[in-house]
Design brief:
- The protein is of the alpha+beta class.
- It has one domain.
- It contains one helix and six strands.
- It has a six-stranded antiparallel β-sheet with strand order 1-2-3-4-5-6, with helices on one face.
- It starts with a strand and ends with a helix.
- It holds the Pfam family TumE.
- InterPro entries: TumE-like.
Length: 96
Amino acid sequence: MGATLIHRSKETRADGVTIEMVIWSVDPAVAGSAHEYKYRLYAGRAGRTLVRYDNEAGKGDHKHVGADEAEVPFRFVSMQQAVSDFLADVARLTGE
């Protein structure tokens, strides 16, 4: 698989929430996904996941929600929309 890193960031906010985003452009697409991205969008506090979006090979686009990391599928429209939806989930889960 050819992969090019297109974004990597990690920050810990004043409220203790860590947000990490890693996005790769891949060719061919990851098994289970119909787009050219491999990504992990993570938000957590004190080592516990609040929400994480990813597209693990064979599972397609999905998100993990809460400390038990319940897996929920989501509809991938674009990478920009996935990041926007992720940040909206972070805001909702942290009471912003």
